[in-house]
Structure formats: C-alpha cells, structure tokens
Design a protein that fits this description.
3 domains, 18 helices, 511 residues, alpha/beta, 4-stranded antiparallel beta sheet, 7-stranded mixed beta sheet, Rossmann fold, Spermidine Synthase, Chain: A, domain 2, Growth Hormone, Chain: A
C-alpha cells in the first residue's frame, strides 16, 4: 500500500500528465492546420476541417475508452508513446508526402484522425487513474484545469515562440519529446505497478525518444533536402519567419524569392512587374507625386522604381514581416537587385499590418501602392475587400492615385475582375484595370483607381524604362475577350468571395 507521500507524488505526476497533454494536443492541431494551409492555401477551409476531424476523432477516442478496463496504466503509457511518435513525426511526414508523392491529403487525414483519437483517450484515462487519490469532482477539476492551462500556454507560445524560432517542422519533433516525457514520468513514478510491462515500455520509450532526438539533430539537413526537392534552382537562403517560409533560389543570374512556396519575383523579369506597378500611375498622375505609401513591397524593388523620381519627397513602406525587410537590406543577392533602396533617407519603414496602419493613419498620400501577396487565404483576402479600399481612400489626397497588383486575369479571371469590381464599389469614381506579360508569372493584372479622371493617352514615362514605352502603354489597358467577365461579386470582409474565386482559378494551373 502506497504511503501518503508516495501517493501525493503519483497524484502530482498525473496532474503533470494532464498539463502536458493539454499543451501538446493544441500544438499538434495548430501545427497540422498551419502546415496544410501553407501548402494548399485557403486557411479557413483547412483550419475548419482540421478542427472538425480532430474533435470528431477525440470524441471517438473518449467513447472507445469506456471499453478499456484492464491494465489501464500500461495502456495509458502506451497511448502516450504512440501519441508522441505520431505527433512528433506528423509534420515531417506531411513535408515528405507533399514533396515526393500524391498522398498528401491521405497523410494529413491519417495523422489528424490518429492523433485526435489518442488525445480523446487521455482525459478519461487520467480521470480513472486519479480515482485512488481524490473524489471524482476534485479529480475532474484538477485534470481539466491543468489541461486547459496547458492549452492556453500552447496558444500563446505557438505564434510568438514556436513559429519564429523553431518553425513547424522542429516544433512537432520537440513536442513529440514533450509527449514522451509523460511516459517517462509515469514509468518512473509507477514502476512497481507495471512490472510485467516495464521492460517493454522502457525499451519503446528509449527507442522512440532516440528516433525523435536524431531527427531534431538532423532537422536542418532534412529541411534543406525537402526545400531543394520543391525548387528547381539552388537554394541560397531559407528561413521560417513568424508569418511565412522564406526561400531564395539562384540559377546563374536569376534570383527568385518564394514565400510559402509562392514566387514573389524573378530577377530576370521583375522589372516588367515593378515598372507596371509603379511607373504606370506615375505616368498618368494629374498632380505632382510628393508622398507615397507602399503597402507590402518589403523587398525594396518597388521603392527602387519610385526613387527614379526626384520630386518624391517621402516614401512610407508598411510590411508585416520584418524579416523580409531585413533580408532586403542585408542579403547581397537582393540588395544588388533593389540597389539598396531601403537605405535611402526618403524611405520610412513601418513593420505592421496594412489594414491596421490605414485605420490609424492621419496622413495624406499622393500615391498609394498595394504590392501585397495574392489573396490565397482569408487574412490576405481582407486586404482586397471593399472596406479596405474605403480605408485607402481616407488616406489618399483628393487628386491622388491608387494602384494594386490584382493576380492574373488569365489564370484567375474571376479573382482579377472581382478586385476591379470591389475597387469600383468602394467609391472610386474611376478605375482602370490593366495587365502586362511577365514571363515568370504569365499574364499579370493590376488595377488603377482615382477620383479624378486620368488621361491614359499621353503618359509621362520615366526615361530609363526597360519595358514600358509610349508605344506599348495603351496596350496594357486592352483585354482579350476570353479573359473578361462581369459575372463576379464584390469582395467584403464578412463575405470573402475573392478567396474562392482565386483558389478556383489557380487550382487547375497549380496541378
């Protein structure tokens, strides 16, 4: 019979198990949902599906637990070992399946449901194991309170610690080990009660921990291999910021920047994109452009184009990810392309969300440029909403001009025309959709808008253009019949139809 002191230590061990279980369960869910959203976009759909499958599997695990009667402690330790292995290996398995096979979705479903099922076993098992030490109401209160505390710490640490410092790949392995710590603690504290199975459980624990530790040690090598499997060219820089996976590749003189696997620019033709984005509005402005607001554009390439105009006195750049800005200032490959534009004294850099900046901004700008990522998730789709464009107008001078990149009118026709229609619906008196051929991207679209009517027939182009000319300028505003549609809706914050248009348009091309 256990002494009071020994019983208290065992009770505390089970409470520790509840805390770690709550911590790991939320982390696994967040890691899986984040990973599939990275790869497939549409964060709302995949976070929703992940939560649904996860919770259903947890319910199934809780239901099945009532049929497990004998050797409860041994089965609980076994479940924790299985959970540690599956949780730890879930993200490496998803990475591998995405890069090397067509089994990404089956792999996602297997790990989501398996992990959810095992987590569903935890609370019922712990409650029954605690029966020896306290009354039912005390046990439930203790177990659930520490389980929820673990969940709180998980949700705080995930965006502020795990993603920026470890990334999803290493985080899953680390928390696989954390899960193993439950088994280790139980094996130590309850060794006399599991004598028959102790040797087998200890061997499994050592083996599984060793596997995960080795994978953590070699995670850098594994990630480099995985990265290279996804990209055709040699990777010269790869990192996980708080918001996205940043990759730079190099093939001879071609430097390419990818964010979450999506191409942002190619050095061989980025000038076509940035001249179209920046020089077109500058060429048709009805008043001198003195103050410019850039939303996105942390790579400094749009700033480079703006600095061609001596009359511009101030450029305010707002970008969410400070790592992109830091990379654009320090990476020799990028600084060679952007000509160290971010170091110019005319440029002020604000790290923050574009929507929040506009909400609080009291300054007026002659030109506002949105060089934001494509609307492939809900967080980005809101930056192409009617409400967002109304905020743009509040920060725009009376004779000012607004321009945004607007994805491809060829590959994502509905998305492009939805953006144009949304800008019109937001209150701009005049809007001018246009497009340009950019080999790395294909046919790419932009939308120009203003309250004053613009004269497109006599552009005042910068002298040192490589792509734009008076001869091809008017052609930018001409669209072939097969890439025009008016069967689209306005994109709103509370009804982001643009996201579905975008994903539907790019789905065929992506595969």
């Amino acid at each position: 019979m256990e002494t009071t002191h020994s019983g208290k230590k065992q009770s505390l061990t089970l409470i520790y198990a509840a805390f770690i279980a709550g911590l790991c369960s939320i982390i696994y869910e967040l890691l899986i949902a984040t990973t599939i959203s990275y790869f497939l976009g549409d964060s709302i759909t995949y976070f929703s599906l992940t939560i649904g499958f996860y919770m259903a599997a947890m319910g199934l695990g809780s239901f099945v637990s009532k049929y497990i009667e004998e050797n409860l402690l041994v089965k609980f330790i076994s479940a924790e070992l299985a959970l540690g292995v599956l949780g730890g290996l879930s993200i490496p398995a998803l990475y591998f399946s995405y890069a090397t096979s067509s089994l990404f979705i089956p792999t996602y479903l297997f790990f989501t449901i398996s992990i959810g099922f095992l987590i569903g076993l935890e609370i019922p098992f712990l409650t029954r194991l605690m029966e020896t030490y306290n009354t039912l109401k005390v046990n439930i209160a203790n177990i659930l309170s520490f389980d929820y505390l673990g969940a709180l710490i998980a949700t705080i640490s995930f965006p502020f610690v795990l993603l920026p410092f470890f990334g999803v790949y290493q985080s899953s392995l680390i928390f696989g080990l954390a899960n193993m710590s439950i088994a280790i603690a139980l094996l130590y504290m309850f060794s006399d009660e599991i004598k028959g199975a102790k040797k087998r459980l200890v061997s499994l624990t050592i083996s599984f921990c060793a596997i995960i530790v080795v994978m953590i040690i070699f995670s850098g090598v594994s990630l480099r291999y995985w990265d290279q499997a996804l990209y055709e060219d040699r990777i010269v820089h790869s990192e996980q910021s708080r918001y996205q996976h940043i990759v730079l590749t190099k093939n001879r003189s071609d430097i390419r920047l990818f964010l979450n696997g999506n191409l942002q620019f190619s050095a061989i033709d980025e000038y076509r994109y940035h001249e179209s984005l920046v020089l077109v509005p500058m060429a048709v402005a009805t008043q001198p452009i003195r103050r410019v607001l850039l939303l996105g554009a942390g790579d400094g390439l749009a700033v480079r184009e703006l600095l061609k105009f001596v009359e511009i006195e101030e450029i305010v750049l707002v970008d969410l990810d400070k790592r992109i800005v830091e990379l654009a200032k320090t990476n020799p490959y990028i600084t060679e392309i952007n000509k160290r534009s971010l170091e110019n004294k005319k440029v002020s850099i604000i790290v923050g969300d574009a929507f929040s900046y506009l909400l609080n901004n009291e300054k007026s700008f002659d030109l506002i440029i949105c060089d934001l990522p494509d609307p492939n998730n809900n967080a980005l789709a809101r930056l192409y909403s009617k409400q967002f464009y109304k905020l743009i107008q509040k920060s725009l001078a009376a004779q000012g001009i607004f321009v945004t990149q607007a994805t491809s009118p060829y590959f994502a026709k509905e998305a492009f025309w939805s953006i144009a229609k949304t800008i019109e619906a937001s209150g701009f008196k005049h809007h001018y959709p246009y497009h340009a051929s950019i080999p790395s991207f294909g046919d790419w679209g932009f939308v120009l808008a203003s309250h004053a009517e613009l004269d497109l027939s006599d552009p005042k182009l910068a002298e040192d253009t490589r792509f734009l000319s008076k001869q091809n300028f008017s052609k930018l505003f001409v669209f072939d019949k097969d890439i025009i549609t008016d069967k689209v809706s306005v994109n709103h914050l509370d009804k982001p139809v643009l996201l579905n248009y975008y994903l539907r348009g790019w789905r065929y091309y992506a595969h």
